[in-house]
Automatic annotation (TrEMBL):
This is DNA-binding response regulator. GO terms for biological process: phosphorelay signal transduction system; regulation of DNA-templated transcription. It holds the Pfam family Response_reg. It comes from Rugosimonospora africana. Signal peptide: none annotated. GO terms for molecular function: DNA binding.
């Protein structure tokens, strides 16, 4: 079985220990390293080449936002980042999503939530919580919103983006619109290219910031 390589980044040793115990109980997950601040995350990621980083958003010295931004500059885009936070309405979470994180989890999430989240993101999807992203996005305007206003999406692309913003997976969108999954993937890629963003999370932020979705 191919294993998903995970790096844990949190300044609390107890949290890292708990996450390691959860993940290493699964045969397809392996923890390849731990870090207690953002600078150590980047160094560990270069050395261990993880697929996923579980990133505490608030850490001393270099925080999770700066670390996420640096990981995104790796050749090939670097590992996918899932932010781990105490409060879903934390402004730091929004900044981390804008910096390139693929989603977030609350620290009080269940073991199954963490395991499923890693698998979802590793499969190329994003971990979206539409209500939380909407609350955060509507407080802040930004360049993503302006990009969407100028993107000239087709009607079908706009329809797909609305469903993505509801947290639907590619297969769920395909069922809803009576399309093939590969066709949905093509529409999603076109949306990302036209809006000029790197992933689904960024596209959803743009959708809310621009008022495309209210």
């Amino acid at each position: 079985m191919s294993q998903i390589r995970v790096l844990l980044a949190d300044d609390e040793p107890l949290v890292r220990r708990g996450l390691r115990a959860i993940l290493e109980s699964e045969p397809d997950l392996i923890v390849v390293g731990e870090a207690d601040d953002g600078a150590a995350v980047v160094a560990q990621a270069r050395r261990t080449r993880p697929d996923i980083v579980l990133m505490d958003v608030r850490m001393p010295r270099v925080d999770g936002i700066a670390a996420t931004r640096q990981l995104g500059r790796f050749d090939g885009g670097g590992p996918a980042v899932i932010v781990v936070t105490t409060f879903e309405n934390d402004e730091y979470v929004y900044d981390a999503l804008q910096a390139g994180a693929r989603g977030f989890l609350l620290k009080r999430s269940t073991a199954d939530d963490f395991i499923q989240a890693i698998r979802v993101v590793h499969n190329g999807e994003s971990l979206l919580f539409p209500a939380a992203i909407r609350r955060l996005a509507t407080r802040r305007g930004g360049p993503e919103g302006r990009r969407l206003a100028e993107a000239n999406l087709t009607d079908r692309e706009a329809e797909v983006l609305r469903l993505v913003a509801q947290g639907r997976s590619n297969s769920e969108i395909a069922d809803e619109l009576f399309l093939g999954v590969e066709t949905v993937k093509t529409h999603v890629r076109n949306v990302l290219a036209k809006v000029g963003v790197r992933d689904r999370v960024q596209a959803v932020i743009a959708a809310y910031e621009s008022g495309f979705i209210r």
